[in-house]
Amino acid sequence: MAKTAKRKSPPPAKSYCKRAVRLGALHAKIIEPAHVPTAEWVRLKCQYGCGGYGERLTCPPRSPTPDQTRRLLDGYRHILLIHTARGGMAKKIAAELEREAFLDGHYKAFALGCGPCSRCKSCKLEKGCVHPRLARPAMEACGIDVFATARGAGLPLETVATRDETANYYSLLLIE
User: Fold this and answer.
1) 41 within a domain of the structure (yes/no)
2) What residues does 175 pair with on adjacent strands?
3) What's the total number of domains in the chain?
4) 41-84 tens-digit pLDDT
5) Does the pTM exceed 0.70?
6) Residue 162 falls within a domain, yes or no?
7) Is residue 94 part of a domain?
8) Which end of the chain has fewer CB atoms at under 10 Å, N or C?
9) Would residue 3 count as lying in a domain?
10) Which residue range is the domain that position 128 belongs to?
């Protein structure tokens, strides 16, 4: 009969802040689910403002609604807010930390990215995602007010009018 190894307790959520910075994040901060507002208007910005609306499995109308997202967020105690200078990096760090947290024993760990998924040139809507371990819905696609979330955490986020201006990108890691 095989023995089951006794696992130690998973590391505290705060330990992933340092790891995120080592992976390239500018900041990483633990926030409470109540400090991540959701709203219907956020998804409308995807529907009436993004040329990729409906073209990805990670985007509306296939992503969770704001009400579903609110219930999801409220099922967690800790949320790691990850701030980077590049969108691809924000998504990559969140996905990597999700996997690490899961393997550490945080079995509910789940990441949310930023912006449309760019893993494939075109999404195989009928067949399902070919990168399910890496693709995650964008916060804004789920109705999360990213501006209010970042500003509430004391981190920078402003609208960008030109490509010369500095952009800030965010992702989340939900940890029980």
Assistant:
1) yes
2) 78
3) 1
4) 999 998 898 888 888 888 899 999 999 999 999 999 999 999 99
5) yes
6) no
7) yes
8) N
9) no
10) 15-150
